[in-house]
Write a structure and sequence with these properties.
The chain is an all-alpha fold. The protein contains 10 helices and 2 strands; from the N terminus they run αααααααβαααβ.
């Protein structure tokens, strides 16, 4: 009996030590109870080892004892398993969302601030371009094109012509045409053709039509991109007539035959 009491006391001490350690490590209460239960289970096992041997059984009595033992063990295992923290996907998802929510909010705010700053910068550029066009008199691009015949680019001699080309180049940058088209060896992501020799194929009117109505012309070899509508149909709303004329006038000056600019095919 004294030996059994010593094992019980030892098991209790170990259980208390495990409880204190897990509490110090900030384990959840369910884990503290779990470790304490393991200590008690170990104590029971050592007590059973000292128990007297059972008398041999046979026949129906042995089968009954086996079934009772099986039932007891199943109950113990099921009850023990129920003490474990149960995994709930929705609960875990809620925990993850709680952790990530501040980081997501900070990221989204950063993106929003970046977009707002970019929009303000583009707005300032657009206002500056509008003032320059207004200073030119507004209709010089159209008048120059008419003077040179249908589709002819305005004269680029003198201050006025130079300003029109500069405005056209600024529009190329402002509308970010370089994202899809390569020009002077820069830009392009193969969504659109290189334009270094576009002036050899199209007039100002043709380029203007393409900008305002992307489906009006198709580049040879870019049939898939044409069908998918890769060139956005938004510039008629984003750009004023004068901006489109300036951009077309600037593009028509590119006639570098060493660059394999695809042949434009009229679709409308």
């Amino acid at each position: 009996m004294g030996k059994a009491m010593l094992k019980i006391v030892t098991g209790l001490v170990i259980g208390v030590v495990l409880w204190v350690v897990t509490m110090a490590l900030e384990f959840p209460p369910v884990f503290r109870w779990l470790f304490f239960g393991y200590a008690m289970l170990g104590t029971v096992v050592f007590l059973i080892l000292d128990a007297p041997n059972l008398k041999p059984m046979s026949g129906v009595k042995a089968v009954g004892a086996l079934l009772v033992f099986y039932a007891v063990m199943c109950t113990v295992y099921i009850a023990g398993a129920s003490l474990w923290p149960q995994y709930d996907p929705e609960d875990e998802k809620g925990k993850i969302d709680k952790i990530l929510k501040p980081k997501r909010a900070a990221t989204e705010q950063g993106k929003a601030d970046e977009l707002i700053a970019r929009a303000k910068a583009l707005d300032e550029q657009a206002k500056a371009l509008a003032e320059r066009i207004k200073a030119l008199g507004g209709d010089q691009a159209s008048g120059a094109q008419a003077a040179g015949g249908p589709g002819a680019p305005p004269s680029t001699t003198g201050a006025a012509g130079g300003d029109i080309l500069k405005i056209g180049e600024d529009q190329w940058q402002l509308q970010e045409c370089y994202n899809c088209h390569k020009l002077k060896g820069e830009g392009g992501k193969k969504r659109g053709p290189e334009l270094d020799n576009i002036g050899s194929y199209l007039t100002v009117d043709d380029i203007k039509q393409k900008i305002l109505d992307p489906k009006s012309w198709m580049a040879e070899g870019f049939e898939k991109e044409f069908e998918k509508g890769k060139m956005p149909d938004k510039y008629k709303d984003l750009m004023e007539e004068k901006d489109v004329v300036a951009l077309a006038t600037w593009l028509v000056t590119f006639k570098d035959t060493s660059v394999n600019t695809p042949k434009p095919i009229k679709k409308k």
